[in-house]
Design a protein that fits this description.
With 203 residues, this protein is an alpha+beta fold. The protein has 8 helices and 6 strands; from the N terminus they run H-H-H-E-E-H-E-E-H-H-E-E-H-H.
Length: 203
């Protein structure tokens, strides 16, 4: 029955559609990655996440300025490595464009518990500022992330854009303009929420 409904959705003009397939694909992303990336292949969540990406996203999808859906796994692994814990939730989503392709925007929050590895990799300029390190260590940074999913006519994700707001997240956490300015002055998190490749292990 579900397949028949998607076939009907495919044949309807865009101005008559509900965009349920696109909304479902975005919702499923937030469901399977709700607790971050599962790093063990023996974990059922790992299987579900890989099945989702292979089934909902094109192999040549553009994500974080890179071509290839494997980038989702690479960044997921980095988030799992650099933070003690990762939790993601979507607060609301809506269709923002239907031409030439359907684009859905989702407003999400990332809950990131900061570890020593986080400081070492994302805030290396703070290593000599132990008072500020102590204000960050073990705390949860809640960061707003705008997610934009672009779909082709077969409902596959062809582009996945993300825009992060670490400024507000750090301000809410540190409750100090001065400390926030210092923390942001050398942060290695890119505006699209991309983490730098690293050899560091979680701690």
């Amino acid at each position: 029955m579900e397949g028949r409904l998607e076939t009907i959705a495919f044949t309807l003009p865009k101005n008559l559609r509900t965009f349920a397939p696109e909304s479902k694909a975005a919702s499923e992303y937030f469901r399977v990655f709700a607790n971050g990336y599962a790093t063990s292949a023996r974990d059922a969540a790992y299987v579900n996440q890989h099945d989702y990406v292979r089934g909902a996203m094109r192999d040549d999808m553009v994500f974080m300025d890179s071509v290839g859906s494997d980038k989702v796994f690479e960044q997921g692994q980095l988030y799992a490595t650099l933070f003690h814990s990762v939790r993601m939730e979507c607060h609301f989503s809506h269709i923002v464009s239907t031409q030439p392709d359907v684009m859905l925007e989702a407003h999400a929050k990332l809950h990131l518990r900061i570890s020593r590895t986080t400081i070492l990799v994302l805030f290396p300029h703070l290593l000599d500022n132990e008072p500020l390190v102590q204000k960050l260590l073990g705390k949860v940074m809640i960061m707003d992330v705008l997610c934009q999913f672009t779909f082709d006519e077969d409902f596959y994700v062809t582009r996945f854009n993300t825009v992060a707001n670490p400024t507000i997240a750090l301000m809410n956490l540190l409750q100090s303009i001065q400390d926030t300015t210092v923390a942001l002055s050398g942060i290695r998190l890119k505006p699209n929420a991309e983490l730098p490749a690293t050899e560091a292990r979680s701690c």
